[in-house]
Task: inverse folding
């Protein structure tokens, strides 16, 4: 259901340089065919809320991927006017819609809060608690910390989209898929689920790039060698990232689960989580116990 299209007028969509409206219903999309819905295979956990995601490009523009390998998706060239939208819903009711908008070669951030059938754009000067839900709408700093460390667009990338042929019109040259288990076709189901949780929630920061926010690489091909019996860095408490057979001694598990009283262990993910993902915690616990 394209919630933001319900009251749109008969215009031809955003053009590069157009400002985003204060009311979400004023986004100028004529029909649902102007935007493409997508679903990452490994979605980001967001306090248990449901999400709808859409990508829009101005007519006649494309994402440029020519000459880039599947591992270089952070270097895709997105055209000005590109807009990605994600609507968060609780019990079937929309709560917020976040926007990632390309302007003059840079990404800008927008968030609209829903009330009475429409959504109003927020200033992003401060976080906004959602009444009746354990969920907080982010401020601009939180948006920047996640997206700039992660390389811009998150979720619409080769390891997350099973078949880009559904989005052929968005690309000048269609990118190839990069299956999570490409480096290990014999990966068992439990490992795949745990690594998928890393992809959805951790790899946009822990991705092996240079910089203080990356720490170490949790990408599937190197996740084991960077965690099993490996000492932590100075970014968190001293210890071992994953101790096979012992979740209670594994700093990575303690950071994800919160099952500790050590103030030096940083909660992970560090942003955007008011309610921990209980199912993922139990998958991680069982997987470590079986190592």
Result:
């Amino acid at each position: 259901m394209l919630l933001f299209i319900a009251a749109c007028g008969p215009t031809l969509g955003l053009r590069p340089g157009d400002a985003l409206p204060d009311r979400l219903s004023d986004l100028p999309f004529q029909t649902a065919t102007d935007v493409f819905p997508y679903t990452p295979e490994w979605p980001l956990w967001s306090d248990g809320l449901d999400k709808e995601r859409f990508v829009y490009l101005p007519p006649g523009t494309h994402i440029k991927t020519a000459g880039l390998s599947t591992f270089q998706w952070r270097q895709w060239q997105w055209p000005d006017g590109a807009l990605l939208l994600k609507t968060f819903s609780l019990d079937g009711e929309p709560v917020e819609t976040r926007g990632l908008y390309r302007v003059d070669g840079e990404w800008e951030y927008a968030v609209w809060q829903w009330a009475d059938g429409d959504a109003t754009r927020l200033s992003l000067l401060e976080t906004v608690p959602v009444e009746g839900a354990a969920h907080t709408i982010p401020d601009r700093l939180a948006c920047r910390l996640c997206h700039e460390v992660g390389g811009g667009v998150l979720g619409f990338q080769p390891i997350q989209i099973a078949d880009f042929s559904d989005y052929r019109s968005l690309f000048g040259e269609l990118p190839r898929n990069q299956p999570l288990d490409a480096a290990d076709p014999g990966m068992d189901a439990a490992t795949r689920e745990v690594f998928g949780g890393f992809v959805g929630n951790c790899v946009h920061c822990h991705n092996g790039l240079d910089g203080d926010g990356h720490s170490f690489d949790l990408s599937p091909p190197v996740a084991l060698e960077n965690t099993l019996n490996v000492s932590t860095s100075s970014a968190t408490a001293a210890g071992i990232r994953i101790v096979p057979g012992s979740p209670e001694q594994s700093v990575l598990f303690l950071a994800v689960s919160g099952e500790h009283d050590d103030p030096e262990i940083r909660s992970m993910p560090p942003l955007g989580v008011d309610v921990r993902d209980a199912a993922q915690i139990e998958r991680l616990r069982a997987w470590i116990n079986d190592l």
